[in-house]
UniProtKB/TrEMBL annotation:
Keyword annotations of the record: DNA-binding, Transcription, Transcription regulation
Organism, scientific name: Tritonibacter scottomollicae (Epibacterium scottomollicae)
Residues annotated as domain HTH araC/xylS-type: 130-227
Signal peptide coordinates: none
Name of the protein this chain belongs to: AraC family transcriptional regulator
Length: 235
């Protein structure tokens, strides 16, 4: 997956930082909507760093610290300043997420007003597994950890494990199934590339997506999409 195409913006050498910021801030690419699904600066940084690895880009943006008011970028080798283009992308993503008065000075990216964090819609099911699936689906591209999910659900990690086990599952099983179900739906109904689907559904990289999808469905994402499209033409 090409990094520029994933963001839906022109990142060619002649583009200024200001142009990149404006382009990313108004981007509607699915990958960008995944980056800003929850306007939490730490989550946004986590996803953006994963996208950089996913696309194997160099140089990459490195993060030294994230607070509720600023992001500090790590210095490069020999205390070199961070890559300006990567920093501009991060600034644009923050603006796209709804942060106001975003500015950069040195290795600091600051903002004055941060948007509120939305809460997932209530789940009426009596099954805790269904509540967990809905939580994961609310921000599927996130690298969910059981500790984070338990906190959102108002449980201790041990309690969440115990309740899921009583319902015949585990956190990892539920997470894999939620990702696979959404990936399969996107492969059937969208024109997203395989790489975009993989990132959107929270897989660490394309190899992880291929491996986990094959394990759950019994075929590769590409073969699954071809088969589904062929079946639709027959129907």
């Amino acid at each position: 997956m090409d990094f520029s195409d994933a963001l839906g913006v022109d990142l060619s050498a002649d583009q200024t930082a200001e142009t990149i910021i404006r382009s990313v801030a108004s981007a509607e690419a699915p990958v960008v909507t995944a980056l800003v699904a929850v306007p939490d600066p730490a989550l946004i940084c986590e996803k953006l760093l994963r996208l950089q690895r996913y696309c194997s880009i160099v140089p990459r943006l490195e993060i030294a610290e994230v607070t509720t008011q600023a992001i500090t970028l790590a210095a490069g080798p020999h205390d070199e300043p961070p890559d300006l283009k990567c920093a501009a992308i991060l600034q644009g993503v923050l603006e796209r997420a709804g942060f106001k008065f975003v500015s950069a000075q040195g290795r600091k990216i600051r903002w004055k007003n941060a948007p509120g964090i939305p809460t997932p819609p209530p789940c009426e099911s009596a099954q805790l597994t269904d509540h967990l699936v809905q939580l994961i689906a609310s921000d599927l591209s996130r690298a969910w950890r059981i500790e984070d999910a338990a906190l959102h659900l108002g449980l201790s990690t041990r309690s969440l494990q115990r309740y899921l086990h009583a319902e015949g599952g585990t956190f990892s099983i539920t997470l894999r199934q939620a990702r696979t179900d959404r990936a399969a739906a996107l492969l059937r109904t969208s024109s997203l590339s395989l790489a975009e689907v993989g990132f959107y559904c929270g897989y660490a990289d394309q190899a992880h997506f291929q491996r986990e999808f094959h394990r759950q469905i019994g075929t590769t994402p590409r073969k699954y999409r071809i088969k589904q499209h062929a079946q639709r033409r027959v129907d």
